[in-house]
Design brief:
It is a single chain. By secondary structure, the protein is mainly α. The protein is built from 11 helices and no strands. Helix 7 (156-197) packs antiparallel against helix 9.
């Protein structure tokens, strides 16, 4: 394990040096499926393998979270009815309880795969990883065919197909959202430059910092290969930067207009004063009027507004390269095991 950590750190250091001194290699047209970890919300409780009722409850909960009540009410009712018939019979539970638990698990995986496919189709991601998408569709079709045949056709193979469908679709989504996140980051960076151009970091310091924190959170999510979350953070940062820019620019325009109007009034007054001087010049000192070269205010010193700007990296080259190295190391570890 220590060797792996040292290798990853070394790779990261090398990539940092490379990114500073050379251009990144050109991207190839072929996109590989990313190495993905099993999703978890961090709240999952361990279930005793001998606790059939616990397994059923946990599996049913996942089915509900996947939208079973709304999107698969008939399948859910079928499982609920089957469970109700055996839950008070120890012998029946011992015989068919695991099958009921598997049915709920299958329903959850099927719905997750179905929802993932819809998300891909809605965003037009399929072509980005066509092979995985096509395999996912094949797996999903098998599951739906098994459901159409009835409960007796739902088995371990059906569950495996549902899990494979979801895994393939998840890989497509990862690539798709990564692409969108990259584009949104560029837009957010341009928006930040606009905000910096009107010194938003000075006039709206807290708001500017919050937007930049969102930008950096996007970078963190991107580095963890969570493109969807990265996209959300970059978009939020972009919108806030643009809002600050537009508000400040509007106020500046109003202020400039007021200045121009004031200048016009001053010019008019000066013209009137010149005419008055010619007609009735003042020849003696008047109390309350200072000499022309009098210093009325102490000299002010201003901090450079650029000091309020918060720097962020312009591109994601280093993170992309580190992700590649991390994936290769993870793959070698799995291959070694």
């Amino acid at each position: 394990m220590k060797k792996v950590v040292v290798s990853l750190i070394s790779a990261f250091a090398v990539l940092l040096m490379i990114s500073c001194g050379s251009k990144p290699a050109a991207e190839t047209s072929e996109v590989e499926a990313p190495v993905l970890e099993q999703e978890t919300d961090g709240q999952e409780e361990a279930v005793d393998p001998d606790d059939i009722e616990g397994q059923i409850a946990a599996a049913r909960k996942k089915a509900l979270e996947a939208g079973a009540e709304k999107d698969a009410a008939d399948q859910l009712k079928m499982l609920d009815d089957a469970y109700a018939k055996i839950k008070d019979d120890p012998d029946a539970m011992a015989k068919d309880g695991a099958k009921i638990a598997r049915g709920y698990k299958l329903l959850a995986e099927y719905l997750k795969a179905k929802n993932a496919k819809k998300e891909i189709d809605d965003n037009g991601f399929a072509a980005l990883l066509q092979k995985n998408y096509d395999e996912g569709v094949k797996n999903l079709n098998k599951v739906e065919a098994a459901y159409a045949k009835g409960a007796d056709s739902l088995n371990e193979s059906t569950l495996a197909d549902a899990e494979a469908a979801y895994a393939n679709f998840t890989a497509v989504l990862a690539v798709g959202y990564k692409k969108l996140a990259k584009a949104e980051r560029e837009a957010a960076y341009e928006a930040k430059k606009k905000a910096d151009s009107v010194k938003a970091g000075v006039s709206q310091k807290d708001r500017y910092k919050a937007a930049t924190d969102k930008f950096k959170a996007g970078d963190s999510s991107y580095a963890m290969q969570n493109g969807k979350k990265a996209l959300e953070n970059y978009r939020a940062a972009k919108e806030e930067y643009l809002a600050m820019y537009e508000e400040i620019a509007e106020k500046r325009a109003a202020a400039q207009k007021a200045i121009e109007e004031a200048k016009a009034r001053v010019a008019e007054s000066e013209s009137f004063a010149e005419q008055a001087d010619k007609e009735a010049p003042i020849t003696e000192k008047v109390e309350g009027i200072e000499d022309e070269d009098a210093v009325l205010l102490e000299e002010d010193t201003f901090k450079d507004p650029k000091d309020a700007e918060i720097d962020v990296s312009e591109d994601l080259t280093v993170m992309d390269q580190v992700n590649i190295v991390g994936d290769e190391l993870q793959g070698s570890l799995k291959g070694g095991n």
